[in-house]
Amino acid sequence: MNIKLTFIGIVIAMITLSCKNDDSIEKEIIKINHFKTVAYGPFAGLFMNTQGGEDLGTDKWSIFYNSIENFEYEFGYVYTLSVVKTKIEAPPQDGSDLKYKLEELISKEKIAEDTEFEITLRKAYTEDSELYVTGNRTDGFQILNQIHIDCGDLCEELEAIQNKDGLTTVTGVFKHTDMENTVELTTLNVED
Questions:
Q1: pLDDT in tens, 66-122
Q2: Which of 57, 76, 126, 164 is exposed most, by the fewest CB atoms within 10 A?
Q3: Are residues 79 and 140 in the same domain?
Q4: Radius of gyration of the chain from Cα atoms?
């Protein structure tokens, strides 16, 4: 009788554990936009814009604060991916409780060179504003020390926003360039 109860207990434990594991793993199709957005996770950074679930194929994009294991993002391309989403039992403090891993690269489509997009360069908050542009006209400009800015005729204006006091939100309208990790600034939008 003891052997039967032990055997039944083991079978129940195996079923319970296998169900638990199935609940913590999920496959999902996501789309990743051709540019990154300045946002705050645990710090200010450039984060991918994604679509998933019922937002897939719409105009609604969400900021993606995670990384995707085995996926190399390249500016100027829209990606469709199949990913495996795993629930992390004990996530790091201020970290996500989800881990993403690339299962399949479904598509990688180059964006037309004349496609324009906006990136926040300075964000106004209650008492101050955060500046996401570094550099100067001589050495060049970057967004969060990651993306080079070809500022053309707008370099003087771009330098001026770095020195402006007060509550100001500034967005740049950009296009992709042939140079890796470089965007072309076409317009500056300043809100006082």
A1: 999 999 999 999 999 999 999 878 766 666 778 899 999 999 999 998 899 999 998
A2: 126
A3: no
A4: 23
Which residues have CB under 8 Å from 87's CB, separation 6+?
23, 24, 25, 97, 98, 99
- Look up residue 90 and give its two tokens: 């004990």
- What is the Cα–Cα distance from 140 to 155, expressed in whole angstroms? 9
Q: Within a domain: residue 15?
A: no
Whole-number pLDDT of residue 97: 73
Residues with Cβ within 8 Å of 102's Cβ and at least 6 positions away in sequence, in order, are: 68, 69, 70, 71, 81, 82, 83
Query: Would you call 55 helix, strand, or coil by DSSP?
Result: helix
Alpha helices in 100-169 (DSSP H): 155-163
- As for how many domains the chain has, the answer is 2
Reported as a single tens digit per residue, the pLDDT across 33-81 is 999 999 886 678 899 999 999 999 999 999 998 999 999 999 999 999 9
- Among 110, 143, 171, the domain boundary falls at 110
